Amino acid sequence: MPNNYGQLVWKIEKTYKTKKAFSMAAGVDVKTLNNYLNGKNSMPATFISKCCELLSIPTAEIGFYFFTPEMG
């Protein structure tokens, strides 16, 4: 079942204003970021860790942002 990254996108846009600005900070291009967020590619654990660092996501909330199943 694919993940729903809606909350993650919200956090990215709240913190960095644009996906482009966030992708630059995270060290990936926008296309790669969009592929992760659209479920075309799986997010590597190292990227999830980097996102948590950049977005100040506590360990206890990783599941909420990265492993919420898409319903439907």
Secondary-structure map:
Blueprint (H helix, E strand, L loop, with lengths): L5 H11 L2 H8 L3 H8 L7 H11 L6 H5 L6
Helix pairs in contact: 2-3
Descriptive report:
This protein is an all-alpha fold. Helix content is 60%, strand content 0%. The protein is built from five helices and no strands. α2 packs across α3 (30-37). The model has no long low-confidence stretch (mean pLDDT 93).
Quick description:
With 72 residues, the protein is mainly alpha-helical. The chain has helices at residues 6-16, 19-26, 30-37, 45-55, 62-66.
Share of residues in strands: under 5%
The portion of residues assigned to helices is: 55-70%
Helix/strand order: HHHHH
- Kindly name the structural category: mainly alpha
First-to-last CA distance: 10 Å
Q: What is the makeup of the main sheet?
A: none
Number of beta-strand segments? 0
Poorly predicted spans: none
Q: What Rg is obtained from the alpha carbons, in whole angstroms?
A: 11 Å
Total of DSSP H or I helical runs spanning 4+ residues: 5
Mean pLDDT: 93
Shape field: globular
